[in-house]
Amino acid sequence: VEHPTEDKAKTEPRDPQDSDDVLDNLEYGRYLKEVVEILESDPEFKKKIENASLSDIK
Questions:
Q1: ∠ CA 30-33-35 to the nearest 5 degrees?
Q2: What angle do the packed helices 16-40 and 43-51 form, to 10 degrees?
Q3: Model pTM above 0.85
Q4: What's the rounded mean pLDDT across residues 21-44?
Q5: ∠ CA(12), CA(23), CA(36), 5° rounding?
């Protein structure tokens, strides 16, 4: 039994834009992690976040 979608995926080249999106997402993830680490290193900010409600954070 042949599956047309599988055959199509094998023959069509990958879109280079897809790999750029993945790279952008990885870079953005690293950036967010760095920002969170910096903010958590500030004792005053950390205290404010710990005492904030979910609606305050949104």
A1: 110
A2: 100
A3: no
A4: 90
A5: 150
